[in-house]
Amino acid sequence: ILNKRAIEASEKERPIPDIRTGDVVQIKL
Fold first, then answer.
1. Domain tally for the chain?
2. At the top level of its lineage, which domain of life is listed (predicted)?
3. What is the pTM of this model?
């Protein structure tokens, strides 16, 4: 749940995918 919110927050802050965002997505998957 925390990871999902982190992804949503990072997406709102930075629409462009970032390395950190990619890492979080991998953890979610």
1. 1
2. Eukaryota
3. 0.29
